[in-house]
């Protein structure tokens, strides 16, 4: 399995209420990586997914510089070590 | 050109971005880490050409005139939902749009003098083009907000809750962390649901005006600019999330009615995906009087 590092917005540390430590997992899809993240940090769930389990419209996820919505969203395969960057649709402030 | 109230801004040399010591100060006074604000660094000087800018954000009445005359349909109307903050977090609210900010049961008919919301960058740009204007650049926006010399809020460096439409204005108490914000929001949501707490444009004038006499540059609605989100310097270290947003997102400025004091500062920057819209973001227009500064 490839190793996936997940980068989250700096203000999510405040939401978590503690240091997040290493956000790395071994998975082979974007969806699995995000499920791992919310299993580790359940408070991030509503920041990632809407009520029906889709990637919410208020967040974007980039894999290798590409928005996963322009790939195959949560089904996007991860075939080698990679970094996922989570960017809220409105970030900052 | 369709604007009744354009303010002429003289050319000038302006410091954009925040002083380092200011970020030290706000990092100590609120809950988010300093790095969250470091896209405001470094403060740098920019030569600004003259331009004109609307004194207030575009209102529901003005946007209605545009929609009626042009037949324009916003992206939220096409999608069939708008983003509204629910009891706990953002929600895709069916039927929410600029006409119905909280959903079908809500209407702007009694708020025609409030700023329009639920507009994407393309919606805002379409209005501006129809009106014979354009969106202000980020540099223009910040210059208007604090004048040639940096100040934290349009009126000065001392916070005054009575001068801007912010969450603290409605809460009537200081908000410096997420629990305090949530306490205010829970109460507001219980009483008003998703109806935005916008106010008639210019309501906080003249006390809340910028040095140029421009209104609502802090709070009421956050405002789209014409500038793609970018970092101020290749020599500064920035949060990787901000780097990912670079050249993909657009800059939004000013903060809105949901935000607290440090989120409605003159040099506060927000990166926003151009297809995003919510019930607290609007815009105003500008007109060149010479080459614009990006």
CATH class of chain A reads Alpha Beta
Radius of gyration of chain A: 12 Å
CATH fold label of chain A: Ubiquitin-like (UB roll)
- CATH H-tier superfamily of chain A: Beta-grasp domain
The helix/strand order of chain A is: EHEHHEEEE
Distance between the termini of chain B: 22 Å
Low-confidence stretches of chain B: none
Main β sheet profile of chain B: 4 strands, mixed
Gross geometry of chain A: globular
If strands are numbered along the chain, what order do they take across the biggest sheet of chain B?
A: 9-8-7-10
CATH architecture call of chain A: Roll
- Poorly predicted sequence stretches spanning 5 or more consecutive residues of chain A: none
What is the CATH C-level name of chain B?
Answer: Alpha Beta
Features:
heterodimer, A: about 90 residues, alpha+beta, Ubiquitin-like (UB roll), five-stranded mixed sheet, 3 helices, globular, B: about 290 residues, paralog of FGE (formylglycine-generating enzyme), four-stranded mixed sheet, three-stranded antiparallel sheet, 8 helices, 11 strands
How does this structure look, described?
The complex is a heterodimer of chains A (93) and B (294). Chain A is α+β, with helices and mostly antiparallel strands and 93 residues long. Helix content of chain A is 23%, strand content 26%. Chain A has one domain: Beta-grasp domain (Ubiquitin-like (UB roll), Roll). Chain A has helices spanning 11-16, 30-40, 45-48, and strands at residues 3-7, 24-26, 59-63, 66-67, 82-88, 90-91. Chain A is built from three helices and six strands. The mean pLDDT of chain A is 93. Chain B is an alpha+beta fold and 294 residues long. The longest helix of chain B is centred in the middle third of the chain and has 15 residues, at 178-192. Chain B is globular and about 45 Å long. Chain B has one domain (6-288): paralog of FGE (formylglycine-generating enzyme). Helix content of chain B is 24%, strand content 16%. The model of chain B has no long low-confidence stretch (mean pLDDT 95). In chain B, strand 5 and strand 6 (90-94) form a beta hairpin. Chain A binds chain B through residues 7-11, 13-15, 46-47, 50-51, 56-58, 60, 62, 65, 67, 85-87, 89-93, and chain B through 31-33, 35-37, 39, 83, 88-92, 178, 239-242, 244-245, 248-249, 252, 255, 259, 263, 268-273, 275-276, 278, 281.
């Amino acid at each position: 399995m490839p190793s996936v590092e997940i980068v989250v917005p700096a203000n999510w540390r405040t939401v978590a209420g503690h240091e997040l430590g290493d956000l790395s997992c071994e998975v082979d899809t974007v969806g699995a990586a995000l499920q791992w993240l919310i299993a580790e940090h359940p408070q991030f769930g509503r920041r990632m997914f809407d009520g029906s389990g889709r990637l919410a419209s208020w967040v974007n996820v980039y894999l290798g510089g590409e928005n996963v919505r322009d790939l195959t969203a949560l089904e996007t395969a991860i075939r080698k070590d990679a970094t996922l960057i989570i960017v809220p649709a409105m970030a900052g402030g | 050109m369709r604007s009744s109230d354009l303010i002429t801004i003289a050319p000038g040399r302006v410091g954009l971005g925040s002083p380092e010591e200011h970020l030290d100060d706000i990092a100590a006074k609120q809950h988010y880490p300093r790095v969250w604000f470091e896209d405001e660094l470094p403060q740098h000087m920019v030569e600004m050409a003259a331009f004109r800018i609307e004194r207030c954000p575009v209102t529901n009445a003005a946007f209605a005139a545009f929609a009626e005359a042009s037949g324009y349909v916003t992206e939220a109307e096409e999608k069939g939902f708008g983003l509204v903050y629910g009891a706990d977090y953002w929600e895709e609210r069916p039927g929410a749009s600029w006409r119905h900010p909280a959903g079908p049961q809500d209407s702007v008919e009694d708020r025609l003098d409030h700023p329009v919301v639920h507009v994407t960058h393309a919606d805002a740009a379409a209005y501006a083009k129809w009106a014979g204007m354009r969106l202000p650049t980020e540099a223009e926006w910040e210059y208007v907000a604090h004048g040639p010399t940096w100040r934290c809020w349009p009126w000065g460096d001392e916070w005054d809750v009575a001068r801007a439409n912010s969450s603290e204005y409605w809460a009537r108490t200081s908000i410096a962390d997420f629990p305090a914000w949530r306490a205010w929001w829970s109460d507001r949501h219980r009483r008003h649901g998703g109806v935005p707490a916008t106010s008639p444009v210019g309501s906080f004038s003249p006390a809340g005006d910028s040095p140029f006499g421009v209104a609502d540059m802090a709070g009421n609605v956050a405002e789209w600019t014409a500038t793609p989100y970018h970092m101020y310097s290749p020599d500064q270290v920035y949060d990787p999330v901000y780097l990912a947003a670079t050249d993909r997102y657009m800059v939004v400025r000013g903060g809105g009615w949901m935000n607290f004091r440090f989120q409605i500062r003159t040099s506060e920057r927000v990166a926003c995906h151009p297809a995003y819209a919510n019930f607290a973001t609007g815009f105003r227009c500008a007109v060149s009087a010479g080459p614009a500064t990006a």
